[in-house]
């Protein structure tokens, strides 16, 4: 595979993962 494509894919997955964690924390904050 293209190294650049792999790097871009990992970056996208990392951003989605971090975004999901932040969203879950915000939802918990609202729930509390």
Automatic annotation (TrEMBL):
Keywords: Membrane, Transmembrane, Transmembrane helix. It comes from the Bacteria. The keyword Transmembrane applies. The chain crosses the membrane at residues 6-25. This is Uncharacterized protein. It comes from Afipia clevelandensis ATCC 49720.
């Amino acid at each position: 595979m293209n190294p650049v494509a792999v790097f871009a894919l990992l970056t996208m997955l990392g951003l989605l993962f971090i975004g999901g964690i932040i969203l879950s924390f915000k939802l918990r904050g609202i729930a509390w």
